[in-house]
Amino acid sequence: MASPFDSIIFDLDDTLYPSTTGIDKCIKKNIELFLIHKCGFSESKASTLRVQLFKTYGSTLAGLRALGHDITAEEYHSFVHGSLPYDVIKPDAQLRNLLRTINQRKIIFTNSDRIHALTVLDRLGIKDCFEQIICFETINPNLPKATRPEEFPVLLKPSLDAFKIALHAANVDPRRTLFLDDSIRNVAAAKEVGLYTVLVGKTVKSEGADYVVECVNSVPQVIPEIWGNEMEMDGDDGTMRRSKSELEAVLATAAVGA
Ligand SMILES: [Mg+2]
């Protein structure tokens, strides 16, 4: 049987590296500092406002602009990501080996800006494993042209419009595409646009999740169908045999790491 998937789309933060690095906490802290120092909100208000804006608008930046604050995406991203301790993200050789056994198209789809995405992929040592990075700038091409902050809404996952733009940019058929993300909201939206979905970093499937993996490196055990019949096929084709042994090596490493 051939693989049911022609393409695999990966979220980045907390999907390709675990939230235990603490990067997500630093991002939240920096967003609150942005609200205090750049927008003039009080320290006591910043934390609740960040959560409110995220719930209502999808992100703090989206919320601030929708409410008329003239904040550019560049100044927001450079403040929020500029001082992150990226050195806590280490090269992941196991993930690199795993990605290299996947012959399908591999695409990143992140709400983060391109500089952050490239920095993280570089730290993980997997930048060359992806053919395309769909990021904030891809989903929001008109934002720099806005004459007032609320002119164009900031689009981000889990908005269905963001997914539609991403699927178009990636030129994939959602019915033949696997999508991995750590966000329950993003997985539910991905299912709505017809993608096969993997919830990452949890133990229980959420609504719309076809699979759940505690860690991206567990994908071979949980979704072996990505590799189709390459595991069983052991004919004269050297390529097939090589990919079988590669996969077995990855599985062995994954088992040791578990
Ligand atoms: Mg994420």
From TrEMBL:
SUPFAM superfamilies: HAD-like
Pfam annotation, one family: Hydrolase
InterPro entries associated with the record: HAD-like_sf (IPR036412), HAD-SF_hydro_IA (IPR006439), HAD_sf (IPR023214), Pyr-5-nucltdase (IPR010237)
Protein's recorded name: Uncharacterized protein C24B11.05
NCBIfam families referenced in this protein's UniProt entry, alphabetically: HAD-SF-IA-v3 (TIGR01509), Pyr-5-nucltdase (TIGR01993)
Gene3D superfamilies for the chain: 1.10.150.450, HAD superfamily/HAD-like
